[in-house]
Write a structure and sequence with these properties.
This protein is α/β, with parallel strands linked by helices. The protein has 2 domains: about 240 residues, ABC transporter transmembrane region fold (Up-down Bundle); about 250 residues, 3-Layer(aba) Sandwich (Rossmann fold), CATH 3.40.50. It has 19 helices and 12 strands. The strands form 3 sheets. It has a 6-stranded mixed beta sheet. It has a 4-stranded antiparallel beta sheet with strand order 2-1-4-5, with no helix packed on it. The radius of gyration is 36 Å and the shape is elongated. The two termini are about 50 Å apart. The C terminus is likely disordered.
């Protein structure tokens, strides 16, 4: 896990190394300061000059010379501390930036199967809360986590120099303290694991509410949504409070050991001085050394307190680190093979013995034994009831998923043998859930072709019957689209998405229920434009309305993951029960008597 995270340090390695180096200098100077002060106090007791210019030996320094040394050491310590802080901040912030960047890039490489493993709210939490936790932990590790043990070690060494065997008191508290900290970590880690799942639930509640705000308001469900959010926030608060209660033991435990050690030093040290007992290590115990020993003791225990803060932060960040690594180490299930083919010859499509299921652990296939050949340039309609796997079928063409059994071929080549980018550049898909991004209409359209000219944009929009309504906007093609396309109607959004797909100039165009929100007249004009202007492009139209596929070269009837029938409108009407029932229901007001008539979306009169 650590190795995975450290890959994101990259260009901030220098800052990450310089920070502990300057911290080391800072600690050494801070540990030497009490020693110099003790020497100064001893010199004053023995009588010393206020100032002299010459330097003969350390023991003969004047008060002014001691003061100058102390000032220079303090300034050097201050400078080292400031530089350590600056490099630490730069390294931690850069590390967090790279982590978010690496996670985002990794998500872009995911297949749909990978994305299905992570919810949107979970990915948002991982890129925000989790990265922030790891950033703070990293900041503490490269500065405070270096400073604390170094301060502890150097102070302990100086404590033995100043107080001899009396310094063993400091060493004695380390082991019981470490045991207590380990118990605290052991108790809190499972709680933090649950806690971050609650963060996911909270973000999911917000995401659903904001995304579906129109539905919430139309059904007057604001109070219900408030209560749902309040429940999620309360659960988060309860679990966080429980974890923080355990972590809060850090402070009183540290305070107990802190004051206990100081009391022991004063009590035992006073006894040793009064009885003139030798303390070993060549140390001479007196009132000056006792005062400096207390200073070193405070430094040791303050270091332990800082270490407990680091410990608490790292405890929180361990679960965050694990969640981040889950994303960073997730391998896409779809890869371009070595020596991949880049050229798609034509728009022909072959399904050969295709079976498919979304999960390897699933007991039942979504698609079962599909055998189908679609000629290049052919227009094919697909109709079927809800859950008949129409979308699953076309998702295999652009290799959004890989087949479980059999093969799908485009241009006579198995889609798994193509370079993924090259294949998808030749297979344009207008998905069932249309999505526009914040930006101008031009910027949204150029997702299809970043280099498209204004004339090409207009031509594509005319084919998609979008140019007419765009011209009514004051800023026309420079009109700003809000996030998710909330300032355009459903039908307008669909037509913009179709125009965006046409700009790719694909060999295969798949419309997955992409005209359900436009009126039948506009739908007919779009299909007419396809026939006249892109006759060589293979067109696959998934539709709810039989009128959308009546003039297709062939119509495929899907039922329960299988192909029930294939034929023209005339061949299927009256001979295929599913197609006849749907056609009768939609065109003659007949009442559906079978579950087959339950179509995706329902309202075939939905318009702009």
């Amino acid at each position: 896990m650590i190795k995975t995270l450290l890959k994101s340090v990259r260009e901030y390695k220098t800052a990450s190394i310089l920070s502990p180096i300057f911290v080391s200098f800072e600690v050494i100077l801070e540990c030497l300061l009490p020693f110099v002060i003790a020497e100064l106090v001893g010199s004053i007791k023995n009588g010393v000059q206020l100032w002299k210019w010459e330097w003969t030996s350390w023991s003969s320094l004047s008060i002014g010379q001691y003061a100058l040394i102390l000032v220079l050491m303090s300034l050097a310590s201050l400078a080292c501390g400031a530089l350590a802080g600056a490099f630490c901040a730069k390294a931690a912030a850069g590390f967090a930036k790279n982590l978010r960047k690496d996670m985002y890039y990794r998500v872009q490489e995911f297949s749909f199967e990978n994305i299905d493993k992570f919810s949107t709210s979970s990915l948002v939490t991982r890129m925000t809360t989790d990265v922030t936790n790891v950033q703070f932990a990293y900041m503490m590790i490269i500065r405070t986590a270096i400073r604390s043990p170094m301060m502890m070690i150097f102070s302990a060494v100086m404590a033995f120099v100043m107080g001899g065997n009396l310094a063993w008191i400091f060493v004695g508290v380390i082991f019981p303290l470490a045991a207590i900290l380990f118990i605290i970590m052991w108790r809190t880690l499972p709680l933090f694991r649950k806690l971050f799942k609650k963060y996911d639930n909270l973000n999911e509640s917000i995401q659903e509410n904001v995304k579906g705000i129109r539905v919430v308001k139309s059904y007057v469900r604001e109070e219900y949504e408030k209560q749902k959010f309040d429940n999620a926030a309360t659960e988060l608060q309860r679990d966080f409070t429980k974890a923080e209660r355990i972590l809060a033991w850090n402070n009183p435990v540290m305070q107990f050991f802190f004051y206990g050690v100081l009391s022991a030093i004063l009590f035992v040290g006073s006894y040793l001085i009064l009885d003139n007992v030798s303390v070993g290590f060549g140390a001479s115990l007196n009132s000056e050394s006792i005062s400096q020993l207390i200073v070193y003791g405070m430094q040791i225990l303050m270091s332990l307190m800082m270490f407990s803060m680091i410990f608490a932060m790292i405890t929180m960040s361990i679960e965050s680190s694990r969640r981040i690594c889950e994303v960073l180490t997730e391998e896409s299930t779809i890869h371009s093979p070595e020596n991949a083919k880049h050229e798609v010859v034509d728009g022909s499509i072959d399904f050969e013995g295709v079976s498919f299921k979304y999960s390897k652990s699933a007991k039942k296939n979504v698609l079962e034994n599909i055998n189908l050949h679609i000629h290049s340039g052919e227009t094919v309609g697909i109709i079927g009831g809800t859950g008949s796997s129409k979308t699953s079928l076309v998702n295999l063409i652009s290799r959004l998923y890989d087949v479980t059994e059999g093969s799908v071929k485009v241009g006579g080549t198995d889609v798994r043998d193509y370079d993924v980018e090259s294949l998808r550049n030749q297979v344009a898909v207008v998905l069932q859930k249309n999505e526009l991004f914040s930006g101008t209409i031009k910027e949204n359209l150029r997702w299809g072709d970043p280099n498209a000219t204004d004339d090409e944009l207009i031509e594509a929009c005319k084919l998609a019957q979008a140019d007419e309504f765009i011209q009514t906007f004051p800023q026309k093609y420079d009109t700003y689209i809000e996030q998710g396309g909330t300032n355009v109607s459903g039908g307008q959004k669909q037509r913009l998405c179709i125009a965006r797909a046409l700009l790719k100039k694909p060999k295969i165009l798949i419309l997955d229920d992409s005209t359900s929100a436009v009126d039948t007249h506009t739908d007919a004009l779009i299909r007419k434009a396809f026939r006249e202007y892109i006759p060589s492009t293979t067109k696959i139209i998934i539709a709810q309305r039989t009128s959308s596929v009546e003039d297709a070269d062939r119509i495929i009837i899907m039922d329960n993951g299988k192909i029930d029938a294939v034929g023209t409108h005339e061949e299927l009407l009256g001979k295929n029960a599913i197609y006849t029932e749907v056609y009768t229901t939609q065109n003659k007001g007949g009442k559906a008597v079978s579950s087959f008539s339950e179509m995706d979306g329902g309202d075939n009169n939905a318009a702009d």
